[in-house]
Design a protein that fits this description.
2 copies of one chain form a homodimer. Chain A has 455 residues and is mainly alpha-helical. The first copy, chain A, is built from 22 helices and 6 strands.
Chain lengths: 455, 455
């Protein structure tokens, strides 16, 4: 199935690129017909910028709004730039309010004005509620189209209400797996699952069968908290309430899935100093500029380590084997430290590292460092004795390796804890700080020991 | 909300550890009452092994099955070991078949026997179907409790059928957002959304309102394909069919969310050579043993780089500044390469890198490397001229830096493409191979140029 899927995609891409080079617009349209907006967005992201612009021009306007929502950062910006203003306004008017909110700030002012004009009073009020909350909060994730009923009505009355709702709005809110139960003041009381609604006696009252344990989230809860809740409780949707407990919307699992995916991408990309919105096929100049900063930071670190080495240039001058072996000490400390760092960052993300745990964890990581330090010190000691026929050098090398492994695991454990307190993203800054420390310390301890005991 | 949640958790943990140290079993139970199985699993994972064992003994048997499903690798193994056989059999008998299947192989033989004995004929047949498929396929993710109806009945008849189903089984299958429509031979035709069932005219026929576009997945589709499909189409559930198109089960979004989370963890942990099931609070010896292998691989690489340096020990002997600067060359190539590597691994995961794209991407990454190489070569050249007052050294340093940056982005781009062909996980092996190459090449090109032009 997957293989087939990939083949399909490669075929579509081949057909499409051929059509874009020397085909008619009809051939292009034929190549991408039947594709879902998410697949089209994906395809647009896989194309170089010029082909992307041409395919966009030929894309059916009715799906352009959904494609913009699915597309990532720079690709989205390009597509918005390439669109005619009136067409763009038409495309985004039809979006769900939470989706509109996600791309709203990137739209040109003329389009925003047109969208605002097209909203009726209720829709504008609701949109303003959605806009109040930052993107990565429950309020930012929520839809405002929750269906709500009173607790003292029967299931039959609910069914009738839903039939009227359907007749009026032509469709039900997406991912409705439950209707919300609220009191006269609009306060959230619980939820009535559709599975109950379709299978229980229609004469039952809502208050007797509703799920009172379906806890709501408050609008200012973080998206990470919401994601955890959905994952732990296997939810499809959850009610969102304000500080007074009044129902203001609901979050559905599809938005949570998108958030989880984005977070996962972020944590992988940040460790290499990349923006998760970086366009794989961006122009080289744009990519180079963004990455130059990261390389510059690493250059400063590397030069700091070089300065440490330069303090011992007389020592190296007398025993050049030190220059041969010193990168080994630095690199092993870095690798051991990255293991601790990765483990602790994950522990923090899973909320398992806190309070008294911290010291247990540090103690454990130090033990791991000591065990592996001694183990590999013996190995490299043996190798060095044979290679350079210098037992004292082997002793110094082994001791420095053990010390740098210990320094690596200690800093790897403590850095994310400290960064968390300072509210700095450990995925972004952790590795850089760690390698700077293990490099400098590795060179210092190895060359320092050598200067003291060997030459 | 999140802050409050964290405080709650810290409070529970503090209360619990106090109770575990010198409290009665009642105090322990009180500290963890009201916690959901996923939260209990999380709490158990946050405790040191002895406390974990004591809390497990005091945990209510009715939730032990769900906790085992939620717990990760080593913690799960410990909890299974600490359980009495009959209690364990009782706990897992109640699980959903797909959940039972996930932990089945870790259960002791006596428990497996007891579980098998307790299954009735239908359940055993269904379980055997689930067990046929590997864990990371649609078949391995699916539940076998799909409700299905014929296309020629009315919605009212479906409602009556669901009422009878509910009366007989006391509950509906989890996450039922739609009932499946099948023909007389059991072949999947489409799905009937509950939102339609509750809001359309009950006299309508299923075949007139069912969603024929709700495509099924085949049981052997990979979990990654399923995750993509759920994400692209915003699905809550999907039908699973066999090769003949017969309905055999359904996949629900909660299992897809778990898969996405696991994949994300894997890609972060693998880059540091860690197993995503590694227990953060595992005993030091166990952790040290697992990580030693990774350190050993890196040691071999570091020694290979050291060997490259040793080829030029006479050169270094004559100009010790080379020893000072050479780690800078190696490290910058590694950092630039990691950026390309991370970007390409992500592009492959998102299925954006294929066919003609590959060469465009390589060309682009080489351009990025060249731009940044020249930029930082000028910077380090200037710094070196001033620091060592040696213009020729600055020239060699700058040239080596540019060449190693180019080598870094080229290997960073090509390695994941090659590993993908060889079916090796690029997240696990990519970084190691890259750093081995950029270190060795960095030292070689810098010291080699110096040997040729400087000394």
């Amino acid at each position: 199935m997957e293989a087939q899927d990939k083949e399909d995609k490669a075929r579509v891409l081949a057909l499409l690129q051929e059509a874009l080079v020397d085909g008619t617009p009809e051939q292009v349209s034929r190549a991408v017909k039947d594709l879902h907006p998410a697949q089209l967005a994906d395809l647009l992201e896989s194309l170089p910028a010029e082909d992307r612009a041409r395919l966009w021009k030929l894309t059916d306007s009715s799906v352009k709004g959904d494609i913009l929502v699915e597309a990532h950062g720079e690709v989205r910006r390009q597509l918005i730039e390439e669109s005619a203003l009136d067409e763009l306004a038409d495309a985004v008017k039809r979006l769900d309010l939470d989706e509109l909110s996600d791309i709203y700030d990137e739209l040109p002012p003329e389009v925003i004005e047109a969208v605002q004009r097209a909203m009726d009073g209720q829709r504008r009020t609701r949109f303003e509620v959605v806009r109040t909350y930052p993107e990565h909060t429950a309020g930012g994730l929520m839809d405002v189209d929750a269906i709500s009923v009173r607790p003292d009505v029967t299931l039959r009355m609910v069914l009738n209400y839903l039939a009227r709702y359907r007749a009026e709005y032509r469709q039900m809110p997406e991912h409705t797996d439950a209707v919300m139960v609220v009191d006269l003041g609009g306060r959230y009381l619980g939820s009535l699952a559709l599975t109950d609604l379709v299978s229980l006696d229609p004469e039952e009252k809502v208050q007797d069968v509703m799920d009172r344990k379906a806890e709501p989230v408050t609008a200012d809860a973080t998206a990470a908290h919401v994601a955890r809740l959905f994952q732990d409780r296997d939810l499809v949707s959850a009610a969102v309430v304000d500080e007074q407990g009044k129902l203001i919307g609901r979050i559905t699992v599809d938005d949570v899935v998108d958030f989880i995916r984005e977070e996962a991408e972020h944590s992988v990309m940040a460790t290499a100093g990349l923006d998760e919105e970086a366009d794989t096929f961006a122009p080289a100049i744009a990519s180079a500029r963004r990455r130059a900063i990261w390389l510059g930071i690493n250059l400063v670190n590397a030069l700091a380590a070089a300065w440490v080495i330069s303090l011992f240039d007389h020592t190296i001058d007398r025993l050049v084997a030190l220059a041969v072996l010193m990168p080994v000490v630095a690199s092993m400390g870095g690798v051991a430290g990255m293991q601790s760092l990765t483990l602790v960052i994950r522990g923090i993300a899973l909320d398992q590292v806190k309070g008294a745990n911290r010291w247990q964890l540090l103690k454990k990581e130090l033990s791991v460092g000591a065990i592996n330090g001694i183990l590999w010190a013996l190995a490299v000691g043996l190798i060095t004795s044979l290679w350079f026929e210098n037992f004292n050098l082997a002793l110094v090398f082994g001791a420095a390796l053990t010390l740098n492994l210990l320094a690596g695991v200690a800093t790897g454990t403590l850095i994310p804890m400290a960064l968390q307190r300072l509210r700095i993203d450990p995925a972004l800054a952790g590795g850089v700080i760690l390698v700077a420390l293990t490099d400098a310390f590795g060179f210092f301890v190895f060359l320092g020991l050598a200067a003291t005991f060997l030459v």
